[in-house]
Design brief:
pyrroline-5-carboxylate reductase activity, Pyrroline-COOH_reductase, 8-stranded mixed β-sheet, Rossmann fold, 12 helices, 8 strands, EC 1.5.1.2, single chain, amino-acid biosynthesis, ProC C-terminal domain-like fold, NADP, alpha/beta
């Protein structure tokens, strides 16, 4: 049972690549995928890497050509984890075997609910999700948008699925692409900041191990403090920034770099790409 009392039914993840694999590992780690999980991958090598996970049936499509349809036919929730360009062909493949009421959840960036419903028809409830890779450690942020005809019960099941790997934010589909530029791509922004600060540490004479330890633990500690304190990050920053001190001088340099403009431009670029993907 999940924390809110909703049991997770049989789940299929068609395309357990980067994101599908993160969701899979989070589900397995939670111990709550009581209905079992079937995952498909094209190669036997990728399928073999997942075969030992508890409660998981891992299928290689190169040796089991009907793997997608077999998995979809027996699942109550089907996650579509293939690359966006591959989604329409996969939907046409599994559409004939989906039982009415089977919930289909998109993990594909830029593919609209309308694309799914045009192929699957109105009998299949479709939700569009945008999780991020911290799902693998139970710290995901997942945006969730429901399509036409999706019931509150459908949303509750899918929300419970994603809550096993983090927190869920329900939004209209019109906001999913914007959400993807913040939480979806956000881990990469954080990792980039860690990379650059580690380079700066090495430039100050620290070796690689020392630089990584101080930078990574500083980010981890700051995030933990933010979560534990409940304070606004701006307030926590002010507490670290003593008047006329070293941190104040460093923050002034960062402000002069116009990080607000940099992040706005970066997320705008990501949003433009998401819209390009949606346009085909």
């Amino acid at each position: 049972m999940t924390s809110n009392g909703v049991s997770l039914p049989p789940i299929a993840i068609l395309g357990a690549g980067s994101m599908g694999g993160a969701i899979l590992h989070g589900l397995v780690g939670s111990g709550l995928a009581v209905g079992g999980v079937t995952v498909t991958n094209r190669s036997a090598q990728k399928a073999e890497a997942l075969a030992g996970l508890e409660g998981v049936t891992s299928v290689a499509l190169e040796t089991q050509q009907d793997g997608n349809t077999d998995a979809a036919a027996t699942a109550d929730v089907v996650l579509i984890g293939v690359k966006p360009a591959m989604v329409p062909d996969l939907l046409r493949e599994v559409a004939p075997v989906l039982r009415p009421g089977t919930i289909v959840v998109s993990l594909a960036a830029g593919v609209t609910i309308a694309t799914y419903q045009a192929i699957l028809g109105e009998r299949i409830p479709v939700l569009r999700s945008m999780p991020n890779t911290p799902a693998v450690v139970g710290k995901a942020v997942t945006g969730l948008a429901a399509g036409h005809g999706v019931t509150p019960a459908d949303v509750a099941v899918v929300r419970s699925l994603f809550e096993t790997v983090g927190v869920v934010i329900e939004v209209p589909e019109s906001q999913i692409d914007a959400l993807s530029t913040i939480s979806g791509s956000g881990p990469a922004y954080v990792f980039l900041l860690i990379e650059e600060l580690t380079k700066a540490a090495r430039g100050k004479g620290f070796d690689e191990a020392q630089a990584r330890l101080m930078v990574e633990q500083t980010f981890i500690g700051a995030a933990a403090l933010l979560e534990a304190s409940g304070e606004d990050p701006a307030e926590l920053r002010r507490r670290v920034t003593s008047p006329k001190g070293t941190t104040e001088r460093a923050i002034a340099v960062l402000h002069s770099a116009r990080l607000d403009v940099v992040f706005e431009s970066a997320t705008d670029a990501a949003l433009a790409r998401a819209r390009e993907l949606a346009a085909g």
